Amino acid sequence: MEKFCMLLMVVVITASVSNAQDTSCLNQLASCLQFLNSTGTPSSSCCDPLKTVIKSNPVCLCNLLNSPTASQAGISLTQAEQLPQRCGENVNASACAA
User: What are the DSSP calls for 23-61, one per residue?
Assistant: First the structure.
């Protein structure tokens, strides 16, 4: 059931992401969904793709954080903003507003 809920969140968020590059980015981050509403330490299966996306497509992260569908899907935006730091990356989420 938990995997179904995570898959459902991916589908809902994917529907709100407009371009193919962002959809690809979201697919890479699917393994991070379980950490978006928890304070646990993310696994390497989440952090490694996240680090790749941070370096190769940071705009995707901004699009995901700014998507109204993320909060509607029950994803904690606070936890989502903290995820890079929990993976050992320094990312300024406020740069997305610029």
Answer: HHHHHHTGGGGGGTT--SPPPHHHHHHHHHHHHH-HHHH
Whether pTM > 0.90 for this model: the answer is no
C-alpha distance from residue 73 to each of 53, 59, 70 (Å) = 22, 21, 5
Chain segment 23-66, per-residue pLDDT in tens: 677 788 888 888 887 778 899 999 999 999 888 888 888 888 77
Q: Is 14 left (phi over 0), alpha (psi -120 to 50) or beta?
A: alpha
For the chain, give every domain's residue range.
Answer: 43-98
- Cβ proximity of 80 and 91 under 8 Å: no
